[in-house]
Design brief:
- This protein is an alpha+beta fold.
- It folds into 4 domains: 98 residues, RNA polymerase II/Efflux pump adaptor protein, barrel-sandwich hybrid domain (OB fold (Dihydrolipoamide Acetyltransferase, E2P)), CATH 2.40.50.100; 65 residues, Irregular (Dihydrolipoamide Transferase), CATH 4.10.320.10; 214 residues, Chloramphenicol acetyltransferase-like domain (Chloramphenicol Acetyltransferase); 109 residues, Up-down Bundle (AhpD-like), CATH 1.20.1290.10.
- It is 41% helix and 19% strand.
- It is built from 14 helices and 19 strands.
- Strands 9, 12, 15, 16, 17, 18 and 19 form a 7-stranded mixed sheet that branches. The protein has a 4-stranded antiparallel sheet with strand order 1-8-6-3, with helices on one face.
- A hairpin with a 4-residue loop joins strand 10 and strand 11.
- Helix 6 crosses helix 8 and helix 9 crosses helix 12.
- The chain is flat.
- The protein starts with a strand and ends with a helix.
Length: 527
């Protein structure tokens, strides 16, 4: 009896599959268990085996067609089947296909953006009479049309191109809710409908994690290995924390909570047309190097569409990193039937109090979404705090020497006095070439004013420091503090001179004294 070949259900979430290629042609002999057709679902290519031995009598789903699961895609004729019986089977299969309504597909409109050319609206423009008449008929503002004729002349074709481009821009782009996009929509909707989702956030100091990564990568590169990423480190840390907090490493349904002994970690991978979450099984048993290799391999296979069905199943917890795309924090949606997902934000440098001192530290925000049906707030917070603890003190976990990093804030104004002075000096040099008379006159004025006389050059430079602070000229401050030190002034004398400016200039003069003057004294005294 002839056998119908049905679109297989390759995963719990699979609804449709796409026929990417037939490995046998109509009329060819097939053997049960032999690879017959290649199916694509969720960016995963799988080869389907023939369900029976015989002849591939009829292909019902051509290459490139998308078919719902459990719908016929071919008919295999077995020995003894007559033509009438075979045709009857084919007709039945065609009727099933018609009932499934799989032929409804949405066409994606290709939108070509019109190239925008700069148009000068001022002045008289050259326009052909036919172009002007057409623009008036179409209601087009001729000033918005770029001319392609001689000297920018607007011709009739320019108006036609403009009208066509505007019409195309107004056509919406249709993205069918099918394939990967449809599966994502269905699963996310299911998660929002069924899960009692709560999200908690935690800021983490990852300065030590950065130090650890740099040390590890020096060692890995020296051994000819690939570098470790922050995602690799985070995966290892999360796997450790999940073993210590099993309620978060669980799967939930309406009837029960399944605490999973194995940590099967899903790492979300963004693709051009959607999102896929390959699963790294037994993550808690893997070394950091093995985790790194697995993550890179799974990500590469996801982007090339070569993931196997098993590599998308069985996840117990998911990590989603949007920090690489600039997101500081977000509320990730749980990947059902898992009980939780961890969102990772971007790394930021900010001032933080550490042991009573204000320091520059690297931070990131972690966002933990959990299903309150299975997990209460207290164990969820304990898990997130454990992840934070391991990230902030990671060296012992990876058996590396612990580093006590101190990153004090830059005091003063934060500007580089040497660069300010260099900028002023370079500017004067260029100005002397462009306007030599003015530059020469300025130098003729300055030279005698600061020459040795009844007042020494040191005293005059100290006076100049005070005036520079009073008028709030950064270039003057840098130049005259430098020259005062070159003339023999010490830090106490320079600050006294600046103090005179403060007496006259008040708060603004004080602000420059405690910032730029301090920085200049420190920078130039070290030379």
């Amino acid at each position: 009896m002839a056998v119908k070949v049905l679109m297989p259900k390759l995963g719990l979430t699979m609804k449709k599959g796409k026929v990417t290629s037939w490995l046998k042609q109509e009329g060819e002999a097939v053997t049960k268990g032999e690879e017959l057709v290649e199916i694509m679902t969720e960016k995963v290519a799988s080869k389907m085996e023939a369900p029976a031995s015989g002849i591939l009598y009829r292909v019902l789903a051509e290459k490139g067609s998308t078919v719902p699961i459990i719908v016929p895609i071919a008919v295999i004729a077995e020995e003894g089947d007559d033509e009438t019986t075979l045709q009857q089977i084919v007709n039945e299969a065609l009727a099933e296909i018609a009932c499934s309504q799989v032929q409804e597909t949405a066409k994606v409109a290709e939108v070509k953006k019109a190239e925008v050319k700069p148009i000068e609206l001022g002045g008289k423009r050259k326009i052909s009479p036919r172009a002007l008449r057409l623009a008036q008929d179409k209601g087009v503002d001729i000033n918005l049309v770029a001319g392609s004729g001689p000297e920018g002349r607007v011709v009739e074709q320019d108006v036609l191109d403009y009208v066509e481009a505007v019409a195309k821009e107004q056509e919406p782009q249709i993205i069918p809710m099918e394939g990967m996009r449809g599966i994502i929509a269905e699963r996310m909707s299911e998660s929002c409908r069924n899960a009692a989702r709560v999200t908690i956030m935690q800021e983490v100091d990852v300065t030590n994690l950065q130090d650890l990564r740099e040390k590890l990568n020096i060692s890995f590169v020296a051994q000819g290995k690939d570098k470790i990423s922050y995602t690799d480190l985070l995966a290892a840390i999360v796997a450790r924390a999940l073993k210590e907090n099993p309620l978060l490493n669980a799967r939930v349904s309406a009837e029960e909570i399944e605490l999973c002994g194995s940590v099967n970690l899903g790492i979300a991978v963004a693709l051009d047309d959607g999102l896929v979450v390959p699963v790294m099984h037994q993550a808690h048993r893997l070394s950091l190097e093995q985790i790194s290799v697995n993550i890179k391999s799974l990500a590469a296979k996801a982007r090339s569409g070569e993931l196997e069905p098993d590599e998308l199943r069985g996840g117990t917890f998911t990590v989603s990193n949007l920090g690489m795309f600039g997101a500081e924090g977000f509320t990730p949606i749980i990947n059902p039937p898992e009980t939780a997902i961890l969102g990772v934000g971007k790394m930021l440098e900010k001032p933080l109090l550490k042991d009573g001192l204000l320091e520059r530290r690297l931070t990131m925000t972690l966002s933990l979404s959990f299903d309150h049906r299975a997990v209460d707030g207290s164990p969820a917070a304990q898990f997130l705090n454990r992840v934070k603890e391991l990230m902030e003190n990671p060296h012992p976990l990876f058996r590396m020497e612990e580093t006590n990093l101190r990153r004090p804030l830059v005091t003063g104004g934060g500007k580089d006095p040497k660069k300010i002075l260099e900028s002023f000096t370079d500017g004067m040099g260029r100005f002397s070439e462009e306007a030599p008379d003015i530059a020469m006159g300025f130098n003729s004025l300055m030279a005698p004013a600061f020459a040795e006389g009844e007042l020494s050059t040191r005293e005059k430079e100290l006076m100049a420091v005070a005036l520079s602070v009073y008028i709030k000229c950064e270039y003057c401050i840098a130049a005259h503090v430098y020259k005062a030190i070159q003339a023999g002034a010490n830090a106490e004398e320079i600050f006294e001179a600046a103090g005179v400016a403060v007496a006259f200039g008040g708060g603004p003069a004080m602000a420059y004294t405690v910032t730029l003057v301090q920085d200049c004294v420190k920078a130039f005294s070290e030379e």
